[in-house]
Amino acid sequence: MKPEPGLGQDMLEVHNPADGSLVGHVHAGTEDDVNDAVRTSWEAFSSWSDTDPLDRSRILFSAARLVREDKKELSLLLTREQGKPLRESVNEIAGFARVLEYYASITGTLQGDYGYSKNYGHMMVMRQPLGVCAAIIPWNMPALIMGWKTGPVLAAGNTMVLKPSATAPLTCIALAEHLYRAGLPRQVLRLVTGSGRVVGQALARHNDIRSLSFTGAVSTGTGVAEIAGPTLKKLILELGGSDAMIVCKDADPYAAAKGAVSGRFFNCGQTCTSIKRVFVDSSVYEPFVQKVRELTEALSIGNGLSDGVDMGPVHTSGQRKDVHFLVQETVNNDQGKVLSGGYIPDNGLLKDGSFYPPTIMTRVDPDAPVMKEEVFGPVLPVSAFDTVADAIDMANATRFGLGASIWTHDMRTISQATRELDAGIVWVNQHLRIPPEVPFGGVKSSGLGRENGRYALLQYLEEKTILINP
Fold first, then answer.
1. Which of 109, 82, 67, 70 is nearest to 24 (CA)?
2. Does residue 246 contact residue 279 with C-beta atoms inside 8 Å?
């Protein structure tokens, strides 16, 4: 993979987390790289914002088609640098294409508002693109999140400077090349690779960037907001979550258990909207845990490039260390027990990568570390509840508020949960899946603003009021 050109001479290595092998190199971007990217993006803004929306739509549709044609190559690259099973990479690449297709389909529908007043005359509201926008994306779902951030920005007529993750940047570079092949001018979308400390902070404090969208940890996101504050740029912050799953006594037992396993161990548990806490009605707790254990023990763990693998490695050894620490702290505090997993492999095929087995913890105290912190790895803590009201209270007892799910067929319970759960997304009898047509974002410490859907376009437009006295 050819690295994105940069002004700096230093390079960063990208490794496969399954075996440590070298996948590629990218430039370690500098503040000068950021300044150059912002300058050229502004130079391209006038032409791009004046481009007919239908022409912008054609480019996005064409890029999506090219991505679908090359999905095998792109999926292999994503698995090699990120670690997820190839099947998940194929779905993620398809998800990127679908996001582009969605925004291409609504590019020509942008409208303003109009009214008439006897006292003021014609009252019009125009919605215009902001200018140069920026995005900082993480390593866990780099292709899909790149689509979430670039799709609405480009559809609305803005230009963008995008910083991929330092540890998983190659797929983003390849996807950008597909956009260029589809006809997008290179100055309209500039990628600057490098560290968050250098490139990310330079984007946050740049006075000529009008909007910044960030996905990552709460601590990093609050730091970004603090740096960006004096520039008064728009901020969209998606800062993770600790999604709760509530399983009621009337839930389909197999569907709920299967949902817990797929919702937690997809992408090795490294998804913002993963199920991270499970609360089960005490009357069905034991059979539910048993079924979850059976399904979990049937998962195949290994290199995502291998056939039949269900779960790959944690993305970095440091991330795995953090996950294991929270599990051990919970056990040492006598706040939960490990039913399966909970160790770092030291032999066999898994010892060379940053693997961590799918871990189930039972009878977990709601105040345990694995319940209070966002565990970004394959750990499923399960607690019991006596009443739905108790379950909702426990689900809400967190600083996060991204997503939550309720598993029941009782409409009164569904009505109560969808009203009372403090979350930006509430699922019923499902979890994790999010179509591009609906807004995505959280409440409380899970962030500010929304991505996806028509709502995302409004984040990248500003209103201009026009009053005409005839």
1. 82
2. yes
Amino acid at 282: S
Query: Which sign, positive or negative, has the C-alpha torsion 55, 56, 57, 58?
Result: positive
- Cα–Cα distances in Å, from 79 out to 93, 140, 403? 11, 11, 26
- Which region, left, alpha or beta, applies to residue 441 given φ > 0 means left and ψ of -120 to 50 means alpha? left
pLDDT tens digits along 425-468: 999 999 999 999 999 999 999 999 999 999 899 999 999 999 99
Phi–psi pair at 92, nearest 5 degrees: -70, -40
Helix (H, G, I), strand (E, B) or coil at 236: strand
| pLDDT for position 12 | 97
Name the amino acid, one letter, at 10. D
At 195 the three-state DSSP class reads coil
Catalytic residue among 238, 373, 374, 451: 238
Paired residues of 381 in beta bridges:
361
Find out whether 203 and 36 touch, Cβ atoms under 8 Å. Answer: no
Nearest-CA neighbor of 27 among 1, 7, 49, 48? 7
Q: How far is CA 37 from CA 48, 206, 459, in A?
A: 16, 11, 22
The verdict on whether 238 is a catalytic residue reads yes
Residue of 31, 272, 374, 451 with catalytic role: 272
25 close to 11: Cβ distance less than 8 angstroms: yes
Query: Can you list the domains of the chain with their CATH numbers?
Result: 11-239+444-468 (3.40.605.10), 243-428 (3.40.309.10)
- Whether 272 is a known active-site residue: answer yes
The whole-angstrom separation of Cα 173 and Cα 373 is 32
Angle at 141 between CA 223 and CA 158, to 5 degrees: 70
Q: What is the DSSP letter of 48?
A: H
pTM of model > 0.90: yes
200 and 111 in contact (C-beta within 8 Å)?
no
91-122 pLDDT, tens digit each: 999 999 999 999 999 998 888 999 999 999 99
Q: Is the pLDDT of residue 1 over 70?
A: no
